[in-house]
Design brief:
The structure holds two protein chains of two kinds.
Chain A (H helix, E strand, L loop, with lengths): L16 E10 L2 E11 L4 E5 L6 H8 L7 E6 L2 E2 L4 H6 L1 E4 L11 H12 L4 H11 L15 H14 L4 E5 L7 H16 L3 E5 L3 H7 L2 E6 L2 E6 L1 H9 L6 H9 L16
Parallel strand pairs in A: 3-8, 3-9, 6-7, 7-8
Antiparallel strand pairs in A: 1-2, 1-4, 4-5, 9-10
Helix pairs in contact in A: 3-4, 3-5, 4-5, 8-9
Chain B lengths: L5 H21 L3 H28 L6 H24 L8 H8 L5 H28 L5 H33 L1 H4 L3 H20 L1 H5 L10 H5 L2 H7 L3 H7 L4 H23 L6 H19 L12 H4 L11 H16 L1 H21 L7 H19 L11 H5 L5 H31 L4 H27 L11 H39 L4 H33 L2 H8 L1
Helix pairs in contact in B: 2-5, 2-22, 3-6, 3-8, 3-11, 3-12, 4-14, 5-6, 5-13, 6-12, 6-13, 12-13, 16-20, 17-18, 17-20, 18-20, 18-21, 20-21, 20-23, 21-22, 21-23, 22-23
Classes of the chains: A alpha/beta, B mainly alpha.
């Protein structure tokens, strides 16, 4: 990918999410190191990496929760650092352990989300989402009364309701029951089919393999690979039948010196 | 015996080492050293003032008999408070990160109790030292009193733990009956007794001295009452030790109290009860409470949602857009979770209004002064007590940071419902006061519009400073000195900002007055000019503080602050 976004450069016609040279430090510790990638309309980008690879830090920074220290993050043409509100209006963020407001009911959470993102005629959409995720009978329950899985479902419903251009999902299936997992998987695919760019971070490699159109593999804060699964197979294992798990192990499992030296080549 | 299981001793040692390590880490930066020194200064001044007040203001002094009786009664009150407080934590309390591991470990239950008792004793040591300073200065031989008081206070945790184990066991056996026991009432009564005891200690001369004439009745007769004497009787050994006047009087009681200490320690460890279920429940309860305190909620505003209030339709007072949605969220929190806070606040404001209307001297019944007192005290009290803003939302900051709105607008939308509530309560109080006095002068109509601006400024300042450095200290957390020093610095910053605003306001008031005189404006025009200029300044100051709050919210780093909180 040759595109380099300099300050002041026009961002018209860019993919819905552009990340360039993003670096994040916690004190002296380097969490993300010069990360660059894009997410395109209608695409599910699977974000994988071992614990501590910098996945959640990356997602939280894109969502505007953590400040951008170095590099640029552009959402729908808006720079998250300088046009924060406009960029966030196009984003939906589903954390790995959502914390609902304990004084609002499930339905009121969706009412609040609709107000926050300016969604008109929200009630039919909210009802449909709650039915889809088996939450309709809990519509009057308070946020503090929900189990982990229900909180996850509510966060997904809220994200879907806000009609985003980019959805960031951090371990969205954790805590869900089998029916919830099926609903969430189908819903993620359908959402992408409507043109939304979805970044899906998960340790469930089978899920990523089944859903993701492209992969972004991170380790120690760096991008190890970005591209399709087929490209990963061709580049890393030279075997068209290799599973994502084997690819993952190949690029992240061994000692650092045995890893592919700079497998940054991808579709960008 | 006393030393317990070898693994638990090792755990205690490792925890102590961890505490020392974290303390050293806190002192590794200049700011850490300054905060710690400030905290030490505050603690020293506080303890010093309490301990040596009597020394410097000693007048006639108390008779040795009265001192002895006071110590006995005081120890009874302290023990009662410890025991009733322990009843809320039935079973054996173990921290959340230890309980599962320790209950499943191959360790005898008696050893777990010993381990916990030793942990509690280490925590109690600082309190024992403070109490010993307070009491020693008032006793015939401070050294004996100091040692005696430390030993007495260090015996309290055992009494509390024994009560928690026995009460928990009784609850297991008697189930429903004991669950309905009025523990809350018992705690309030002992709390009041303890407060009274501390007051008596601090103001012994005023209450018991030769010129005592505060209460209208003789408290010495209360202490001499047979029931009080009977309740205080078990504390005789410690009282004898604390009030000893010679080493021959002191030593036998010291040995007796040490023997009691060892006996109670071992007896508590060997109480044959199965505390596991209650301990799990207690551990979860305490973890929840600590988490609530850590996230900034106080005991009242951190309450649960009222099911009745859940049925109420909360209006979108500030529109249906993003700003209105955030304000609505806060309003829901106020309407549904504030019943205790609101009731208490109304009582306090009502009391202040009542005082300024009825009992305070005539000059304060003047409409402006009285209204200003109600508005001033009310604003400070309500803004500090009603925490339906960022101060109660620390655990939701990740969500807040993702909201699609400029930081200053999120800040304003978050504090606005609280400001409206405070203003409404104060306006109602001021109007009520005027109605009671039978006069509603024009000046009251000047005070009421000022209240929202002042409340907005105060809340904005409080929240901005809080976001800049969200200091939370919860029981059991390390770094007390550091946190105290840090809190002191924040109070300084807050006060300095406030003084700047007030100083500028006075400057503007006198400046505009001078201009009015210089331009020979008519009186009405001059007053209008002054009010308009001061109002514009206040509005500008409020806007600046909202901007400051927005900046503080924007710079709030979820990752950094989370690390600080842990």
């Amino acid at each position: 990918m040759s595109l380099t976004l300099a300050a002041g450069e026009s961002s018209a016609g860019l993919p819905p999410l552009v990340v360039r040279d993003f670096t994040k430090r916690y004190g002296d510790q380097l969490a993300v190191d010069g990360l660059s990638f894009d997410a395109h309309h209608g695409e599910i980008l699977g974000l994988v990496g071992p614990n501590g690879a910098g996945k959640t830090t990356t997602l939280r920074s894109i969502a505007g929760i953590l400040p951008i220290q170095e590099g640029r993050v552009i959402v729908g043409g808006y720079d998250i650092a300088t046009e924060e509100a406009a960029a966030k209006n196009l984003l939906a963020w589903v954390p790995d352990d959502p914390q609902p407001f304990d004084s609002l009911t499930v339905m009121e959470h969706l009412e609040f989300t609709a107000g926050l993102y300016g969604v008109s005629d929200w009630q039919p959409k909210a009802t449909s989402l709650l039915e889809r995720f088996d939450l309709m009978d809990r519509a009057g329950a308070l946020g503090g009364e929900l189990s982990r899985g229900m909180r996850q479902k509510l966060a997904i419903c809220a994200a879907w309701l806000s009609e985003p251009g980019v959805v960031l999902l951090d371990e969205p299936l954790s805590g869900l029951d089998p029916r919830g997992i099926r609903s969430a998987r189908d819903a993620i695919r359908e959402l992408a089919d409507t043109g939304v760019a979805v970044i899906l971070s998960s340790h469930l490699l089978e899920l990523i393999e089944a859903l993701a159109d492209r992969l972004l593999i991170m380790d120690h804060g760096r991008r190890i690979f970005v591209g399709t699964l087929a490209e990963a197979r061709a580049m890393i294992t030279k075997d068209s039948g290799t599973s994502l798990e084997e690819i993952f192990m190949a690029v992240t499992g061994g000692p650092r010196e045995e890893r592919p030296s700079a497998p940054r080549a991808g579709t960008e | 015996m006393l030393v317990g299981h070898v693994a638990l001793r090792k755990l205690a040692r490792l925890k102590l080492r961890a505490w020392l390590r974290s303390s050293r880490r806190r002192l590794s930066t200049w700011s850490g050293i300054v905060f710690a020194l400030l905290g030490l200064l505050v603690m020293t001044l506080w303890i010093g003032s309490v301990a040596f007040r009597y020394v410097f203001t000693r007048s006639a002094g108390l008779s040795p008999e009265l001192q002895y009786e006071l110590v006995r009664v005081g120890l009874f009150v302290l023990t009662s408070l410890t025991v009733t407080a322990s009843l809320a934590h039935r079973g054996l309390y173990l921290p959340k990160d230890e309980i599962e591991r320790l209950l499943s470990a191959p360790v005898a239950r008696a050893d777990l109790v010993r381990y916990r008792l030793l942990s509690n004793l280490m925590r109690t040591f600082v309190f024992a030292i403070i109490m010993a300073f307070v009491v020693a200065a008032r006793m015939p031989v401070p050294g004996f009193a100091f040692v005696g008081m430390v030993l007495a206070v260090m015996t309290l945790p055992m009494a509390g733990q024994a009560a928690a184990l026995l009460f928990g066991d009784a609850e297991n056996r008697l189930g429903r009956f004991l669950k309905r026991a009025p523990i809350g009432l018992l705690r309030i009564v002992t709390g009041v007794l303890t407060w009274a005891f501390f007051m008596v200690i601090l103001f012994t001369d005023e209450v018991f001295g030769p010129d005592a004439n505060l209460t209208g009745f003789d408290l010495t007769r209360v202490i001499a009452h047979p029931v009080v004497q009977a309740l205080a009787l078990p504390f005789t050994p410690w009282a004898k030790m604390i009030s000893a006047e010679s080493v021959f009087e002191f030593m036998p009681w010291l040995l007796a109290c040490l023997a009691i200490w060892f006996t109670v320690f071992e007896a508590t460890a060997r109480i044959p009860v199965d505390f596991r279920e209650l301990s799990l429940q207690t551990s979860a309860d305490v973890a929840r409470k600590l988490s609530r305190m850590r996230s900034g909620r106080n005991l009242i505003s951190g309450g649960s949602v009222s099911k009745r209030a859940l049925g109420w339709n909360v209006p979108w007072l500030f529109g249906r857009g993003p700003f209105g949605a955030i304000a609505w969220l806060k309003l829901c929190s106020i309407v549904r979770k504030s019943r205790g806070t609101l009731m208490f606040s109304i009582v306090v404001i009502g009391f202040i209004t009542f005082l300024t209307t009825t009992y305070i001297a005539d000059p304060l019944r003047d409409p402006l002064t009285g209204s200003l007192i109600v508005a001033g005290i009310g604003t400070i009290y309500l803004c500090a007590g009603l925490r339906f803003d960022f101060r109660s939302d620390l655990d939701l900051m990740e969500t807040v940071k993702a909201w699609p709105l400029a930081a200053w607008r999120i800040f304003l939308a978050t504090i606005l419902p609280e400001v409206v509530l405070v203003s409404a309560l104060i306006a109602a109080a001021v109007l009520l006061r005027s109605a009671i006095l039978g006069q509603l002068p024009l000046v009251v109509w000047f005070v009421i519009p000022c209240v929202p601006v002042i409340a907005l400024m105060w809340t904005a300042l409080d929240n901005a400073v809080f976001l800049f450095a969200p200091v939370r200290f919860v029981p059991g957390q390390g770094g007390a000195m550091h946190h105290t020093g840090r809190a002191l610095v924040l109070v300084f910053i807050r006060t300095a900002l406030l003084l700047v605003v007030v100083g500028a306001l006075f400057g503007i008031r006198f400046g505009t007055n001078w201009i009015g005189v210089y331009l020979e404006l008519p009186e009405a025009a001059k007053i209008t000019f002054i009010v308009a200029t001061c109002g514009a300044f206040l509005a500008a100051a409020a806007a600046a503080l909202i901007g400051l709050g927005g900046w503080a919210l924007a710079r709030y780093d979820v990752a950094r602050e989370r690390t600080m909180m842990q």
